[in-house]
Amino acid sequence: MTLIILSILSIIILFLSLRKDGIILKKKKGENQGFSFSKYAWSQFKKNKIALISLYVLALMVIVAIFAPQIANDKPLYAVYKGKTIYPALHDLPFGKGEAKYEISEEEIIEFNNMTSFDWRTLKYESVIWPLITYSPKTQDPYNRDYKSPNSSQKYMDHNGKETESPFKFRHHLGTDLLGRDLASGLIHGTRTALKVGIISMGIASLFGILLGALAGFFGDRRLKMKRSKYYFSFLGIFLGLFYAWRPYEITMGLNKGINSGLLEMSISLLILISIFISLRILSKKLPGKFFNKEISVPVDSFVSRGIELLNSIPRILLIITVTAVQKEPSLNVVMVIIGLTSWTGIARFTRAELLRIRNLEYISASNALGFSSIRTIFKHALPNALAPVFVSIAFGIASAILIESSLSFLGIGVPADEVTWGGLLNLGRLYHEAWWLIIYPGIAIFITITVYNMIAEAARDALDPKLKS
Amino acid sequence: MLKYILKRILTFIPMLLAISLISFIISIAAPGDPVERMTKSDQEGGADASAGSNAEEKERVRKQLGLHLPIFYFSVSNYAIPDTLYKIDKKERENIEGLIHQFGNWKAIEKYYKSLKKGLSEHYEMKPQDLLLDDSLSEETIRSEWNNIAAALTSLLQESNVDIVSQNYKVIESTLNNNHFSHLSNVFREIKNNKLYMENNSERWKLYVPDIKFYGADNQYHVWIFGNGRDRHGIIRGDFGRSYNDKQEIKDKIWERIGISFLLSILSIFIAYLISIPIGIYSAYKKDSFADRGMSLLLFILYSLPSFFIGTLLLLWFANTENFYWFPESGIENAVTVDPNWKWWEWEAIKHRAPYLVLPLFTYTYGSFAFLSRIMRIGMIDVIAQDYIRTARAKGLSENKVILKHALRNSLLPIITVFAAVFPMAVGGSVIIEVIFSIPGMGSEIFIAITNQDYPMIISFFTLAGLLTMIGYLVSDILYALVDPRISYK
């Protein structure tokens, strides 16, 4: 749940940053056609042909990821079977949940979900449209087991129940693995995992990085002043709030009953946390005396910088491996969260450096003079100006997140075995060296994705670098 | 200068503490009961070890691992949780904690817990063969019923799930109805009374009072770091404890393996510097030429290629009997032809092992060399644009002198900072490369430890790698300060 919210937030942030940098050009009719930095940056970016191609490749990959079940599926997209028109593949994501029931006639009912395997090739259709790749990534093809190479002879079961040589559309174009799973389909569905990991983990990282970096850069060690009572009561509030909101017993009991009561208990905890914090804040305002009402500065920058230093001095891959090894059951979500929580430091450093520069500009003084609150000044005026270099760092970060995830799934650590990932496919090839297709194609897929992100980041950096402006 | 270095070393110490705390927290959070893991293989040795002596054995292992101590110097909890809770076994402790959260009345819970323990020990004292007084029931029934009661009592100690608890009570009650287990009826009545008392006298208000308890230096963390002066020496003296797997000292295992990993990373860093500095200089000097563009693209591609892909590809092409069998595919030596009397520096030994190291070293090096060249190029371009280079040229110095003497020194600065970044890359990246090429180093050891869930090994490796990385940062910062006099700590 929180993951979904986080990812949506991160996408919004990413989109905003993209728009501000002019990467996504929005044409408004009747807009003043004057010079703007975003337009300039976009025109610079467009000059770099490789980067532009990378952008198109990325867009293509996003489309492939979204419509993966319709591009590679063992069910037909459209078929007329015994006079009935059916659309089995459209019941998979993103259109449906992967379950459906077709009542063809009195005695013949086709019922399928994600668990059952049913060979749709054995039916005789009046007319049919198959997906581009006619296999699902997890379907084990019994006729093409034991590492069938892309150009070897491949068999399939036709509608007469006879095992015959596969026609072009039923071939495994990139070969199969030991269990007869189709590699091309695995690659297409693996795009999902790769992009998801990149976006969600970097979404988490940019949420933390931009927020902490902005606060550290804008306030520094001296600029954030608050009453001593408020400062100390905030710490007290965090302690007491966590103490009373930490109800592991109630939450596990709730989760045992069902997801809804678990969520209810969690939201009660959150409510307790917030209400304690707020009531302590109110209390702190009422405190009398000179001591409590003295204004002191909060060393925000020191807190954030020490945190960054600490996280940087831990070898990241090893931290991720250790934490994923310690969890009870491997889960992709945990891997994404850990990658996100360990890779915000670069983003925070860039944001901090930018805001250190921006906070001394005249328009920030003007915004202060107009009496805007600090929060408004930071998020509405200072931060949008700082996001250009941050975007570059996010794009590089996505590339490295994808690399880390594929390394982990290559080693088989942390990522569950039934998840289709490029790294996992490559690992299958390591076990059996004759299956070169299992090594080359996933490797190329990983390489292309990482290169695309790196190229975009590199070109964006060049386009956004004011030094090159002349 | 000296002040800077001193201050830098001073900030090193809290970082060390933080690393140790993080790895300690991870080790506490590791799933499973360490005592069970350590006693498991012993049980397989003597299959018929009776349950009573098993409990004693567990207690002994708990003492040996130091798990009978409190976890940290202090603990923050609520008033209902007693300060001696850590003494209870991990599995039972979770259940007791659940009970405390339900009723908050520690005295009653303790009474209930003790009566359960008493019941279990009384039950273990009476062996099934002693119960065969009359012949109405067969030995097997008695034995299975005896086992059922033992299982139910143990489960009562460990399970907090309401359904399972009531199920256990039903099992015990129904078995007690036939008179064989009359010795238990008194204790069972006591257990039931205690449970009723506990449920009726809950003091939940205690749960809402915060409480900080201090335990002093005799705790798990302290013993883990500094040792206890008897059998444990602490990690500061190199005692990392024992592996779950083969019960060997982790220190010895690491010493056995660290040499080859260290050799690989040092060699690869050396080679990477050796290649990347000239390339960086050249492409910066000939900026925007065809050679520079081509080189940049090549380096970029190399930089984006995942090392596990390249490693597997190299194995596929150059260590495969079907393609080119130029290099051996795994390990660092041939078990048949290797001579154990060779010292590692002898020419014969180096000649024997060199072919094994070619592919891993290439895989190891190419990524960091691409990375370093790019940094070198950027740094050099920055320096060449500076005024003093123009001055040097205006003085009429030769191009060679300008580039290699004036520009090179300053452009080496960013590369020194990168030295620290290469270090964690060497430690972390080595897992993948050592697994691919089956090199018996630290990386493959950590991989084995992870697949076997050998937590002490994982934690030790993590702590050690964190330490090494921080030393790398320290050294590079000090080097940087030595090379660049403008640096000062503020």
Explain what the structure shows:
The complex is a heterodimer of chains A (470) and B (490). Chain A starts with a helix and ends in a 6-residue tail after the last helix. Chain A is mostly helical and 470 residues long. Chain A is built from 17 helices and nine strands. Chain A has three domains: 37-73 and 131-136 and 181-224 and 300-470, MetI-like (MetI-like fold), CATH 1.10.3720; 140-179, no CATH class; 227-297, no CATH class. Chain A has helices at residues 2-21, 37-47, 49-66, 68-71, 183-219, 228-245, 248-257, 259-286, 290-293, 300-312, 316-326, 332-342, 345-358, 362-369, 374-411, 422-431, 436-464; strands at 78-81, 84-86, 100-103, 109-112, 127-129, 155-157, 163-165, 225-227, 295-297. Chain A is elongated, with a radius of gyration of 27 Å. In chain A, the strands form four sheets. In chain A, strands 2-1-5 form a three-stranded antiparallel beta sheet, with no helix packed on it. Chain A has a two-stranded antiparallel sheet with strand order 3-4. A two-stranded antiparallel sheet of chain A has the order 6-7. Chain A is 60% helix and 6% strand. Chain B is mostly helical and 490 residues long. Chain B folds into two domains: 74-214, no CATH class; 250-483, MetI-like (MetI-like fold). Helices cover 69% and strands 2% of the residues of chain B. Chain B has a two-stranded antiparallel sheet. In chain B, helix 10 crosses helix 13. The longest helix of chain B is centred in the C-terminal third of the chain and has 38 residues, at 347-384. At the A-B interface, helix 6, helix 7, helix 10, helix 11 and helix 15 of A face helix 1, helix 4, helix 11, helix 12 and helix 15 of B.
